TrEMBL record:
Keywords: Oxidoreductase
An annotated GO BP: carbohydrate metabolic process
Coiled coil: none
Protein name listed in UniProt: glucose 1-dehydrogenase [NAD(P)(+)]
Family according to the record: Belongs to the short-chain dehydrogenases/reductases (SDR) family.
Pfam families linked to this entry: adh_short_C2 (PF13561)
Gene3D superfamilies documented for this protein: NAD(P)-binding Rossmann-like Domain (3.40.50.720)
Length: 256
């Protein structure tokens, strides 16, 4: 059974690997044997994740890139290829949020969030998936979505729209890349307190979230590791593509 989830000899690229959720998933992949490239805009934070992986006996390296800039992604892809020879797993976990009310939203803020959450993932998939095809590597692409992608949440208009778009990108690419042996899926996390959403969590909003979450608690970052490891494993999820996997404490099943 352990062999189903063994990622030894696999290389994972984690975009946004210096974030709360991205770093936890990266650590989970490393704990199952994967060599991990941690990619983030903040190199110092990325290096902290590498140190934690190495303390656990894993292998990782930090790389700096701006996901909204094609040239930056091309450069980091080339650097990772020189370091590891290629990759089998691509995890897209960049994220930017804002609570600006709809009628106060300006297009600079709209573009900034979309550039990271949606455009950045599209660019990353273009560059890294094409390399995977050139390398003749079958593999897995995992996008981190949000519960706001299916039922829009109050106060996070642009974020919700960007994540809905990400779901569509995921399912389109699942069809596009299947002939190349590349599976594409998304994880839909529920509420996991992270840097990008803590400022929006007033006591009233927390009460509302708990009222709509059957398990009556926030998620813990490590609770995303299982789904990510499963989707990364060719043996465990070889016939899984185009899916949106909820890890949300039941939020998506709640009505009145």
């Amino acid at each position: 059974m352990k062999q189903l989830f063994d990622l030894t000899k696999k290389t994972a690229v984690v975009i946004g690997g210096n974030s709360v959720l991205g770093s936890s998933i990266a650590i989970g992949l490393a704990n199952h044997g994967a060599t991990v490239a941690i990619v983030g805009r903040n190199l110092e934070k990325a290096e902290d994740v590498v140190k934690e992986i190495e303390r656990n006996g894993g292998k990782a390296k930090a790389f700096q890139a701006d996901v909204s800039a094609r040239e930056s992604l091309i450069e980091v892809a080339s650097a990772i290829e020189k370091w590891s020879g290629g990759w089998d797993i691509l995890l897209n976990a960049p994220g930017k949020n804002s609570g600006t009310p709809f009628f106060e939203l300006d297009m600079d803020e709209w573009d900034d969030i979309m550039d990271v959450n949606l455009k950045g993932v599209v660019l990353t998939c273009q560059i890294f998936a094409e390399k995977m095809i050139e390398q003749k590597r079958k593999g897995s692409i995992i996008n981190i979505s949000s519960v706001s992608s299916t039922t829009p949440l109050s106060k996070v208009f642009t974020y919700s729209v960007s994540k809905a778009g990400l779901n569509s990108v995921t399912q389109f690419l699942a069809r596009e890349l299947a002939p190349n042996g590349i599976r594409v899926n998304a994880i839909i996390p529920g509420f996991f307190p992270a840097e990008q959403n803590k400022k929006l969590l007033s006591s009233q909003r927390v009460d509302s979230i708990m009222g709509h979450t059957p398990m009556k608690r926030f998620g813990k970052p490590e609770e995303l590791q299982g789904a990510a490891v499963w989707l990364s494993s060719e043996k465990a999820s070889s016939f899984v593509t185009g899916t949106l996997i909820r890890v949300d404490g039941g939020f998506g099943s709640m009505t009145i």
